[in-house]
Specification:
This protein is an all-beta fold. The chain is built from no helices and eleven strands. A hairpin with a 4-residue loop joins strand 7 and strand 8.
């Protein structure tokens, strides 16, 4: 069982930056792919970014490509999401999730473990 804890959310003005972190409690997640998803009020949870267990592969949604960067440090057991040039439409609860393998990482149904989420609010 992997329990994930997100941190780093908050309120920021449009154009600003935030860095989210995801860390497991209870065990390491070195061999898991990790994804970030977000859910805005009244909308479905959508894929944001993912990184393979080794960090050699990444994937991004078109809406964040070029603005967000996902990274991991397996020695520190942490996955980060650097978010730059934030827009009001990035406002959502951000969740990290973990799974084995890489196929279909953009689908939330392929993830086995989820965190509780952290709120990101971007003001205009």
């Amino acid at each position: 069982q992997v329990q994930l804890v997100e941190s780093g959310g908050g309120l920021v003005q449009a154009g600003g930056s935030l860095k989210l972190s995801c860390a497991p409690s209870g065990r390491a997640f070195s061999y898991y792919a990790v994804g970030w998803f977000r859910q805005a009020p009244g909308k479905e949870r959508e894929f944001v970014a993912a990184i393979s267990w080794s960090g050699s592969s990444t994937d991004y949604s078109n809406s964040v490509k070029g603005r967000f960067t996902i990274s991991r440090d397996n020695a520190k057991n942490t996955v980060c999401l650097q978010m730059n040039s934030l827009k009001p439409e990035d406002t959502a609860i951000y969740y990290c999730a973990a799974r084995f393998g890489w196929g279909g990482v953009g689908s939330r149904n392929t993830y086995d473990y989820w965190g509780q989420g952290t709120q990101v609010t971007v003001s205009s």
